[in-house]
Amino acid sequence: MKILFLNGPNLNLLGQREPEVYGRTTLADIEVGVRKRAEQRAAEVDFRQSNHEGELVTWVQEAKGKFDVIVLNAAAFTHTSIALRDAIAAVGIPTIEIHLSNISARESFRHKSMIAPVCLGQIAGFGANSYILALDAAVSVNGK
Ligand code: DQA
């Protein structure tokens, strides 16, 4: 199975960005962990990051027919992007929303996710481990 991991704005700064909230693990470290786990689960992964909403929308659109599941940390676009939500709904690929932090326990503007209603489910609050949990969830979704 093929899983597309997409990361939104500022996640390229993980490791140095607000470490008290997001930890000290870099996105490159997270990718290494995801790839290790993927190998154990016999899954193939593509792992990308963009600071641009339109690029993320294009990647979601292009995933059709190429990936079985999308794992999406849309970062701040989670709370604002109708375009990403519409792209997920349009392609119909099962999508898992993830966050490092527990967005429900933070500022009220983070409580609303525009993409949650078109995702299978959400994994949030487990730091870098949210990505590993999402990979396991993606494999189980595909095995259904
Ligand atoms: C985040 C949570 C978002 O609210 C925030 O804008 C991010 C990261 C997380 O992984 O915890 O950039 O998606």
Determine the fraction of residues in helical runs and give it as a percent range. Answer: 25-40%
Which ligands appear in the coordinates? 1,3,4-trihydroxy-5-OXO-cyclohexanecarboxylic acid
Q: Which class do the helix and strand fractions yield?
A: alpha/beta
Order of neighbouring strands in the sheet with most strands:
2-1-3-4-5
Low-confidence residue ranges: none
Helix tally equals 5
N-end to C-end Cα span: 12 Å
Tell how many strands the DSSP assignment holds.
5
Question: Over the alpha carbons, how many angstroms does the gyration radius reach?
Answer: 14 Å
N-to-C SSE series?
Answer: EHHEHEHEEH
Taken from the alpha-carbon principal axes, the silhouette is: globular
Please describe the biggest sheet, giving its number of strands, its sense, and whether it closes into a barrel. Answer: 5 strands, parallel
Strand residues, percent: 15-25%
Mean pLDDT: 97
